[in-house]
Structures are given as structure tokens and as C-alpha cells.
Fold:
Amino acid sequence: MTLKIYGIAASRALRNLWTAEELGLPYEHIKVSYTDPALKEPAFLALNPNGAIPVIDDGGTVVFESLAINLYLARRHGAGTLGAADWAEEAHMLQWTLWTATEIESQTRIWVQQMIYLPEAERDPAVLAAALQALARRLAVADGVLAGRPWLVGDRFTVADLNLASVLLRFKEFGGEAHPHLSAWHQRCLARPAAQRALAMRTAG
Ligand SMILES: N[C@@H](CCC(=O)N[C@@H](CS)C(=O)NCC(=O)O)C(=O)O
Structure:
């Protein structure tokens, strides 16, 4: 059964579309938006009880959480390429992905909340500044690591790179350009043909 990816490309589903493109997987893209009331109805809640996108159905294996979906797809369909070749790589892919979720996305979501969702009058500059400051400290860590190696795990682009790069999509706004090695790495990630195909879907509708 073909992999099904639920969620428009202009959402966190982009991360999973990028992964499917990297792996060359055939997939059906179900372009449901995060504003669609159907997300809160029983049929969709049976797939993702959070009522949110993305969620995938890979031949009956249903998974929600965008970064977990990518770890699963890489392990299931890309062992030794996008996914781990051994347990040490597996550990480091988990390490960087959990770091991305807890140390990076915890701050970038504050930026998104403040700058995209809240009306200007309700924004709190102190909250925004604190998030950007916390983010800068963490981005400096990744910059230091990438000063000595081209990719986060092994000697190739892996799901660890994809997960961090896709969370840092608003790279400039998140202060990424202050970190030269991270900047060069982010450009390498986004220049990949699979990334470009996924990014093009955001405007294609
Ligand atoms: N941590 C989740 C977040 C999922 C999420 O918040 N998705 C947004 C779109 S990017 C959504 O569907 N929001 C609608 C809602 O929560 O009602 C993930 O990474 O998959």
C-alpha cells in the first residue's frame, strides 16, 4: 500500500514530504490544511488524536509527530543512507532529533507565535528576545560541531540534518546567519534536489 502523507506542504508536513522525496518513495499526498475542521472529526482523530497535521499511514503503520515520522521513514526505508547504518549512528540521529525538538523548536515556536499568530499589539518583545537569545546559544553549539564536519552524523546527509534544517526553515529570522558553519550547512541542505522539490510544493498548492 502506498505511503499516505496528510498535511499541506505549507505546514510541518513539509518535513515529511522532503523525507519521502529524499528516499524516492512513492506516496499519496493528502493536502489537508491545519485549519480544516475535518482534523477534529472522528475519522481524522483516529489517525492523529491530536487533531493536527502531519500524520502518515505507511501500509497500516500510522505515525504522528513530524520529526518522529522522519526517524521512522529513514529507518524503515533508508537504512545506511538517510537512516542509520549502525547503533552509534542511530543513537546520534535520536540525539540530534530530540535536541532539535526540545532545544530548538521549543524556541522557534515562540518566534512563530509572536511574529505570525499574535496581532502586533499583543506581541511581547521581552518574550521574543528571550527566545532568540536561547536559540542563539543552541545554534552556536551546532555551529561549533559543523565547524569540524560537513554533516551532523556520519559523513553524509541524514535524517538528523533534515530534521534540524527543516525546523530552521526561517533561518534568517531565527538569527541563523550569525553562525557561519551552520549557515553553509543550511544552504547545503536546502540546495538538495529533494528539498527544492518539497519547497516548491508550498507554493504549488
Ligand atoms: N509537534 C507536532 C505539531 C503538529 C502541529 O501543531 N501541526 C499544526 C500544523 S504545522 C496543526 O495541525 N495545527 C492545527 C491544530 O493543532 O489544531 C509535529 O511536529 O507534528
Observations:
- Residues 11-12, 34, 51-54, 65-66 surround glutathione (CB under 6 Å).
